[in-house]
Known about the structure:
Elements lengths: L71 H17 L6 H20 L3 H4 L5 H11 L4 H7 L6 E13 L5 E13 L12 E6 L6 E16 L8 E8 L5
Antiparallel strand pairs: 1-2, 2-4, 3-4, 4-5
Helix pairs in contact: 2-5
Amino acid sequence: MSLPVLRGCHRFPSSLCFSRLFLKERLILNRSGNTRLPSPAAVSVAAAAPVRRYSSKQTQNQQVVVVGIPNPFIWVRTRIYYFLIRAYFDKEFSIEEFTEGAKQAFSHVSRLLSQCQWQALEGLVAKDLIGKLEEKLNLLPSSYKKALSADPDEIMYMTPGDVGIYYDDDGRKFVSILMRFWYLTSARLPNDTMEGTRVFQVAIGGEGEAETKRLLTANYEFQREFTKGVPPDWTITRIEHSKLLD
């Protein structure tokens, strides 16, 4: 069964043209997004010493470091999968290039989600997933919707989670990569429902002026079909924003 293809770059701003996004490939609407990955590796998050400034007008440096500690077994297993992908599916595959493309995709898609631009998500996110997200977002307050959006400069850390290689009953081949992101948001969120998230005071102006930012996490699963004759494109088949889309 042929899959509908989103052609060209008309759904993205020029800075997010597909030449930069998803390993310089287009995205497709993949109707076979029924496979699921195992739970992601446990990762701890901590605030630490200097890394990033948030304004050229700062009079006080406020920096954040997010440290990820992957499960050694998961780390080794994903490296084996990267080798298998290069050896049997795509010899030019690079996890570094994929990770950068996934970062751009995460920022763009999360912004569309926060703005409830469902039509713009078609071809980028699996169709059945769009419907589920629409139902959830219709119940969220505006502050929660705003917090879904991740600006590229506010993405503090990202790491690949589990990688899966799948075959369906028709012999079609799929690769799924789970990406985990940590990002800051200035959206005003109630403290009672955001228990467990870290809060930072970020200096953005003169002395005594500061903006409160929360460190949030998100999981996005990217899937590509590697069946012969199918366009080499990726689609998002799973979206999770902790504390927001639980």
